[in-house]
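Could someone model S-adenosylmethionine with this protein?
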Amino acid sequence: MRFDIITIFPGFFAGVFDHGIVKRALAADLIQIEIHDLRSFTHDRHRTVDDRPFGGGEGMVLKPEPLVDAVESLRLPQKSARNGTPESVILLSAQGAKFTQATARELAKLERAVLICGRYEGVDERVNQLVCDRELSIGDYVLSGGELGAAVIVDATMRLVPGALGNQDSSAFESFGQSDEHFPADSDSPPRSTHGSGGILDYPHYTRPAEFRGLAVPEVLAGGDHAAIRRWRRERALEKTLRNRPDLLEAADLSREDRAFLAALARQTPDFPVN
Ligand code: SAM
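Reply:
Sure, complex below.
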């Protein structure tokens, strides 16, 4: 998969992709990341990328010509012909649809994603209309530029590209993973997890030492009872989701057992948010 990032701060990405899984995926040629300096697509002496907003108001707006030229230089099919093709042009924007693990799964099926980083007050809306397929926000807050968002999208997406993770199952058995329908859990194997997480958060993890500052690793994890470990992990994941992200439970794939556990938990701990 190839990512093209269009930015006025190409230096921002120096080092960002030089670590861990991204670095390995780049070295193995599983992914490519190209950074494009928006100023190379300007035609004036001052390499102007921004201008004052029509209608007045604060700040500056990124001009449409350099951005559209930058996207067109990548020679993707025209926007009108892109429906269903493995390319997508994405505008980073606080006004965008929220980028989630489900979006990352969708993007990981593409061959090419172009990420446009806005700055200042944002990007002339005609860029969105003319060349972008979607607007994505990485969360409900305003960043000073799209670069961090682009790095987040590259990282979360590339780890779902087949081969990027050492153990491909890891992505199914972590927070926001898909349910067992997609990745049947093998009940005889050592539990990598309880189940595909089915849209809830991951369970707590422990490693050596078995005791640290008076806190012991839960006993069940040291025993060899795989079914008990699976059950314990699922319950802790449900507990954590109820405590930290109860909103996820609405759309989660929950079994009858899961629901009974959550109901009992809510009864025992009245301060917990009730599903
Ligand atoms: N005036 C814009 C608004 O209120 O929605 C905010 C512009 S922001 C200061 C500048 C740029 O940062 C945006 O064009 C966008 O590319 C990026 N940005 C800001 N917040 C973002 C977010 N939550 N997700 C993705 N990109 C974001």
